[in-house]
Structures are given as C-alpha cells and as structure tokens.
Write a structure and sequence with these properties.
The chain contains twelve helices and no strands. It is mainly alpha-helical. The protein has a domain of 172 residues. The longest helix has 31 residues. 25% of the residues are buried.
Length: 247
C-alpha cells in the first residue's frame, strides 16, 4: 500500500516548477502519436467496421459457419449493442496504449526526476547504478515486451467476451506497465544486486503500488498526465527501502 505521507510528499514534489514542466512532455508526445495513428489507419478501420456491419457482415466472423449469430448481430437493437461494445473495447485499448506510450516516453526523463528527488529528500544517499548498463536494460525491456506480446495474444480471443475481456486485456498491459516502471526507476537508484534484493524482499509493496498507479491510469488522460507523479512515488519507495537495506 502507498502510505498517505508518501503520497502527500510526492504530490508536493510533482507541483514543483521543474517536475511539473516535465509532465507536459509525455502528454504532448503521446497525444501527437495517437492522433497520428488514428488518422493514419484508425479512422479507416472504424469506417470499414461500420460499413461491414451495415452490409450484414460481422468482422472476424465467418457468415458461412455462423449464419445465425451473424444475422442476430446485424439486425436492429443487437447491432447497436454490438456497435457500443466495439467502441468501448476500442476506447479501452486506446487508453491502455496511451498509458504504455507515456510510460516509455517518461523513461527518458526518469534519471532527471530521480536526481531531483534525491537532492530534495535524500542528500546523504549515494546512488550506485554503474553496473546497470544500457545493454542490460535494453535486453530486459525487450524480454519484458516479448512476454507482454505472448500474454496479449492469449488475451485476444477474450476481447469480445463481456466482463471477461476487461480483466483479460489488462493482464498483459499491467505486466508491461509494472516491469517498465519498476526497472526504469530502480535502475537509476540501485545496483543490479541491490535492485534484485529489494524487488524480492518487497515484491508485495511494489506490486501493490504499481497496481494502484495502473488502476488510476485507466481513468482517461490520467495515465499520460501523471506519469511524472508515478515515477516520483516509486522513487520515494526505492530510496526509503534502499536506505533501510543499507543500515
């Protein structure tokens, strides 16, 4: 659980001029990228979906094999329910994608954010992350992304199953969010061995923290407006637990 005192301290840090100005970057970059993607192929995909439904064809469903289901989904109220369901799934995927893009973008500013937090609250703490090489970090990110793709492919068949789809699609995205954010912050504070030790000893703490932050990210725009705050909160946790471990 995230302690109330830590949240208050993190919010105060977030609204400092330097860190608040950084928070604009992931929002702007993510907004531009997603807007470009939408006008690049998203709009055409939605138009194609609507045209197919109006013509009595359900995308991804073979009318020869499933004539009854196809007929039901393309008439009257059932068609509108399917339309609404489709747009909700599309909106959810858009939110999740925006969160991940913003998480990746903020990674370029994490070293700066960590050092600001250190100077403000942990001046006596010595950062020792020299053995966290760029090659090791990239390898870990690639490995995480491969696992994410595997989980995402497993979740795909459940996308059009009401209720189950929300849980299924969030599993791979949370996995990616958690691993990217934890490694991003930890690699800028600790050595590899210290990082592994902290993650193992405080696994529940870090998972509960990232799960809370991820849940907050599902609120539209929150995931791209408050990425800096997420990094600040995790930085405080890594610093405090590292200090305890070094005593």
């Amino acid at each position: 659980m995230i302690k109330t005192g830590l949240i208050k301290k993190s919010i105060t840090d977030f609204f400092s001029p330097k860190l608040l100005s950084i928070s604009v970057v992931p929002f702007f970059v993510t907004f531009v990228l997603l807007l470009s993607a939408y006008f690049g192929f998203g709009a055409d995909f939605i138009d194609s979906f609507k045209t197919s439904m109006d013509a009595g064809v359900v995308p991804f469903l073979d009318p020869q094999k499933y004539p009854t289901i196809t007929y039901i989904l393309t008439i009257g109220v059932f068609k509108w329910f399917f339309f609404i369901f489709f747009y909700l799934v599309f909106a959810l995927l858009l939110i999740l994608l925006s969160v991940i893009v913003a998480t990746i973008v903020i990674g370029f500013f994490t070293p700066l954010i960590v050092r600001v937090i250190q100077k403000r609250h942990y001046k006596e703490f010595v950062i020792d992350n020299s053995d966290f090489t760029l090659g090791f970090t990239i390898f870990h990110f690639i490995k995480t992304f491969i696992v994410f793709m595997f989980l995402f492919l497993i979740a795909l068949p459940f996308l059009f199953v009401p209720a189950v789809n929300f849980i299924a699609i969030n599993i791979p995205f949370y996995y990616l969010f958690h691993n990217f954010l934890v490694l991003d912050v930890g690699s800028n504070i600790n050595s590899k061995e210290e990082f592994k030790s902290l993650i193992k000893e405080h696994k529940l703490l870090f998972r509960s923290t990232t799960l809370t932050l991820y849940s907050f990210s599902l609120i539209p725009l929150m995931g791209i407006l408050f990425q800096v705050l997420f990094v600040i909160i995790l930085s405080h946790q890594f610093f405090t637990k590292s200090i305890e471990a070094r005593r």
